[in-house]
Amino acid sequence: MSVAFRREDDDEHKEPRFELPLPPGPNLVTKRGLAAMAAQVARLEGELEAAEGDAERTTAIRRDLRYWRTRHSTAEIAPVPTDEVAFGSRVTYTLNGQRKTIELVGSDEADPAAGRIPFTAPLALAMTGLMAGETADFGGRSDAIEVIETGPIEP
């Protein structure tokens, strides 16, 4: 017998919706990251009200809202770094002859295109603890990274 003749609706064949995974480790954030999380929660709460009557959309928004509320409630503002590379640092460095500047931020605030990478990224881990003028191994090369300047993102 054809499947078309024995099922009553398409819901049984939909992909299951799982909770959004929470990144492991502490939920460190910058002040900017905490504000962005609060804005995300507010935006989703507004969308939830607007989606009333659309069950599928409401379910998706509620899932996202649970994620952002959890992230917002567990957020810890990291201490402002001093003269060594750490979470919340803006770092100017050279790698493969190119000079770049990045910011080390939390997982939810990361945006590589804007120069914000998570503090758990391999590049960030390689530079953590370095001071201006120090070098680090990276990508199988010794002294591949040289930190030119580092300081806090937020004063």
TrEMBL record:
Stretches the record annotates as Disordered: 1-26
Ranges of biased composition (kind: Basic and acidic residues): 1-18
Keywords, sorted A to Z: Coiled coil, Kinase, Transferase
UniProt cross-references to InterPro entries, sorted A to Z: GreA/GreB_C_sf, Tscrpt_elong_fac_GreA/B_C, Tscrpt_elong_fac_GreA/B_fam
Domain of life: Bacteria
Domain Transcription elongation factor GreA/GreB C-terminal: 81-142
GO molecular function, one term: kinase activity
Gene3D superfamilies assigned: Transcription elongation factor, GreA/GreB, C-terminal domain
Coiled coil: 34-61
Protein name: Nucleoside-diphosphate kinase
Species per Swiss-Prot/TrEMBL record: Sphingomonas hankookensis
